[in-house]
Amino acid sequence: MKRSIPVILVLFVLSACGEEKKEHVTFTEFLKNTAKKTAESLKPKKVTLNELFDGDYPSSQTVEFEGIIGAIPTTITWSGGKMNVKIVERRNQTGGRQIGLEMPLGTENNHVHELPEEYQQSDLKVVTNDGTIVSVGDRVRIKAKGYYRSGDYCTLDVISIRSIANEFDESVFETAVPLTDAILNDTAQRSVYCYMDGSMSIPSVYFSMYGEIGLDFANKTNKQLKKVDVMVGDGPSTMNSLPNNYSARDLIIRDYKGEQIKYGNKVRVYGVWDRYSFKSSLDGPNGKFKLEEIKRL
User: Fold this and answer.
1) Over the chain, what HEC string results?
2) For 101-146, what is each residue's pLDDT tens digit?
3) What is the pTM of this model?
């Protein structure tokens, strides 16, 4: 019995030491460590637009990303003295996935000017962090939080917005796929960045809506889409307005570099094919091709 006592004492001491080691961190230190981990997780996280759509972030997480200020949509969201400004991946993009950036109305830094009752795209004026005014088509770097995503709908609350270099990168064309009949007939294809080859002409009767003119398109990529809508303007991938008494020669189109395309030239048009979420009563594909850029062939 006497020989067993030291063994028991040693085991007790080892057990006690082990327990003391586990409880060495005080409650105050635990709180400090927790606060430190929280602060680390809330540092601005650099992401891409696609990562915002494909990921999942806490609403308190500050994210930093680059994008282009998108066109004012036909329906504008106003709520609580804020306006929803669209941020897109590519210049002239009006289809596909878009970020809704909630910005306060006003003329201060990191605000957006209130739109007039009757507005044009040039009326969208976003005030950056240093007071610079940027608008539709300008590239920006954004810090935001309040992340919310539901499917292809994603919104954030602006913290700051900065203007950055806005050079057009032709490599964006490499990700486009030909818009074939197979894609048009595949109901699983909801939104596709794509291209079509053909030539443009003025129809006998044309429609102008939202600053665009619908042109006939002799399509060589699929057999179903016969028209494209081209934005009227004087910048890249736009066309001139048409006079009342027009002829074929009045069709003046510019490519993505801003250079005029000769009448009748073959072109490649890039954009997004968006399938309707409802069944259209019109004949043809149940969706719309939204043109972004024009490239001469």
Assistant:
1) CCCHHHHHHHHHHHHHHHHHHHCCCCHHHHHHHHHHHHHHHCCCEECCHHHHHHCCCCCCCCEEEEEEECCCCCCCCEECCEEEEEEECCCCCCCCCEEEEEEEECCCCCCECCCCCCCCHHHCCEECCCCCEECCCCEEEEEEEEEEEECCEEEEEEEEEEECCCCCCHHHHHHCEECCHHHHHCCCCCEEEEEEEEEEECCCCCCEECCEEEEEEEECCCCCCCEEEEEECCCCCCECCCCCCCCHHHCCEECCCCCEECCCCCEEEEEEEEECCCCCCCCCCCEEEEEEEEEEC
2) 999 999 999 999 999 988 888 999 999 999 999 999 999 999 999 9
3) 0.81
